[in-house]
């Protein structure tokens, strides 16, 4: 089977629209959370509350993923994505100019963020519809690279803008980016009807479909293969700052990790044929953990950066799972399936950071990173039966 090319992917108008709006979303969200953390710190002088503010935008993924994901299939995708951008714009303006106390700022972010998994799921489920076959996998690779790059750009641009104009103006910039993204989506995407029928309440349907997805052995295996190695990766990355003594050098290592991810996604997505890409899933998943073991030797910033970059290049293992995941779930619940995939990933990363962080308190950051690497290898080997491609039946409708 011949693999798709970047030229073929970007030749699709709908993908260009999804790509452009996604970049605006990622950059805007990073600026938003950075500005909110600065705004809270300015009001409270509390590092703990400032950190909580930075993470507040991601916490609702857990609840939204558990109870609201069915909306991604029961409502038209373009309307959902536009609604998400407009909610983000209004939220940012309220955070910037409404003069809310800190508890209200955090509550607003948490409540409006409950629907973020739904908006992300609508976008993810639309991708295989506009990019059939192997083009879908390459499209996911492009979006993953854009996500890593967008986070770096967002942090750099957000930091510079915060220093120049302050947090309120930075939040206003995010609002403008969201409005631009909404306009791009409205003009660039055609209207499509909802994939699934509206039967029963959103919470009840979400719980039922989540149980159905997790009860299927093939789908459950693919979900776990996408989640579990990343639990240990998030734990290792969470220890980079204390490993380097809280110094700014940690930013160099984390930037190297983002670069390694981008290079791995690009190389495997573009140059590996579809069948090879799927065969590479297991060795790349093992690679995800091996370099972190080197932190037990106490490397300096240069080698720490190299090890982090090599490790995150292994994240390209997920590309070999994407086509199989799309084939495993029916179209009418595809949005919820992708939403469950993302929500579980977010939750697992938070759990991994907390667990490895607790371990680091006891044995030190370097050894904790090494343990996380070893755990990642063991999990990849335990999931070898899933990571090795094999034909399997599609999840039945009903």
UniProtKB/TrEMBL annotation:
The residues that cross the membrane are 21-42, 48-72, 103-122, 170-189, 221-244, 250-268, 280-297, 303-321, 342-360, 366-387
Where is this chain's protein located in or outside the cell? Cell membrane
Gene Ontology CC: one annotated term: plasma membrane
List keywords of the entry alphabetically: Cell membrane, Membrane, Transmembrane, Transmembrane helix
Q: Could you tell me the membrane topology recorded for this protein?
A: Multi-pass membrane protein
- Entry-linked InterPro entries: MFS, MFS_dom, MFS_trans_sf
Q: Mind listing the GO molecular function terms for this protein?
A: transmembrane transporter activity
* Alphabetized Pfam families for the sequence: MFS_1 (PF07690)
Q: Which SUPFAM superfamilies match?
A: MFS general substrate transporter
Q: What is its main location?
A: membrane
Q: Which residues form the Major facilitator superfamily (MFS) profile domain?
A: 1-193
KW tRNA processing (keyword) present: no
PANTHER family, per the entry: INTEGRAL MEMBRANE EFFLUX PROTEIN-RELATED, STAPHYLOFERRIN A TRANSPORTER
The protein here is known as MFS transporter
Q: Which organism is it from?
A: Nonomuraea turkmeniaca
Q: What is the lineage of its organism?
A: Bacteria, Bacillati, Actinomycetota, Actinomycetes, Streptosporangiales
């Amino acid at each position: 089977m011949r693999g798709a090319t970047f030229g073929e992917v970007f030749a699709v108008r709908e993908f260009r629209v999804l790509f452009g709006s996604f970049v605006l979303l990622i950059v805007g969200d990073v600026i938003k959370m950075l500005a909110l953390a600065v705004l809270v710190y300015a009001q409270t002088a509390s590092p703990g509350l400032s950190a909580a503010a930075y993470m507040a935008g991601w916490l609702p993924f857990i609840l939204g993923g558990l109870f609201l994901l069915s909306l991604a299939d029961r409502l038209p995708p373009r309307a959902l994505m536009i609604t998400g951008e407009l909610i983000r714009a209004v939220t940012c303006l309220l955070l910037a100019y409404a003069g809310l106390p800190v508890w209200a700022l955090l509550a607003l972010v948490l409540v409006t963020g409950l629907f973020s998994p739904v908006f992300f799921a609508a976008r993810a489920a639309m991708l295989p519809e506009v990019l059939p076959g192997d083009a879908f996998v390459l499209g996911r690779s492009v979006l993953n690279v854009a996500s890593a790059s967008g986070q770096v750009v967002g942090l750099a641009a957000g930091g510079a803008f915060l220093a120049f104009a302050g947090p309120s103006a930075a939040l206003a910039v995010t609002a403008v980016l969201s409005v631009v993204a909404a306009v791009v989506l409205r003009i660039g995407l055609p209207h499509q009807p909802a994939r699934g029928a509206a039967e029963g309440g959103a919470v009840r349907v979400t719980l039922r479909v989540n149980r159905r997805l997790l009860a299927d052995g093939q789908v459950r295996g693919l979900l776990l293969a996408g989640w579990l190695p990343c639990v240990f990766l998030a734990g290792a990355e969470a220890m980079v700052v204390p490993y380097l003594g809280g110094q700014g050098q940690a930013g160099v290592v984390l930037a190297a990790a983002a670069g390694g991810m981008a290079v791995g996604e690009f190389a495997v997505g573009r140059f590996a044929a579809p069948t090879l890409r799927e065969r590479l899933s297991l060795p790349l998943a093992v690679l995800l953990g091996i370099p972190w073991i080197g932190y037990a030797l106490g490397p300096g910033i240069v080698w720490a950066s190299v090890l982090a970059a090599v490790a995150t290049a292994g994240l390209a293992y997920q590309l070999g799972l994407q086509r199989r995941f799309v084939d495993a779930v029916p179209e009418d619940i595809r949005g919820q399936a992708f939403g469950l995939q993302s929500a579980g990933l977010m939750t697992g990363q938070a759990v991994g950071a907390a667990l490895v962080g607790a371990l680091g308190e006891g044995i030190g950051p370097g050894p904790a990173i090494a343990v996380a690497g070893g755990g990642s290898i063991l999990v990849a080997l335990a999931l070898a039966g899933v990571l090795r491609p094999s034909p399997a039946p599609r999840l039945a409708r009903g």
